[in-house]
Amino acid sequence: QTKKQKKCQVDLIIQTKFNNLFICEIKFERGPIKKTVIKEVQEKVKRLKIPKGFSLRTVLMHVNGVEDTIIDSDYFSKIIDFGQFLES
Question: What is the pLDDT of residue 84?
Answer without folding.
Answer: 83
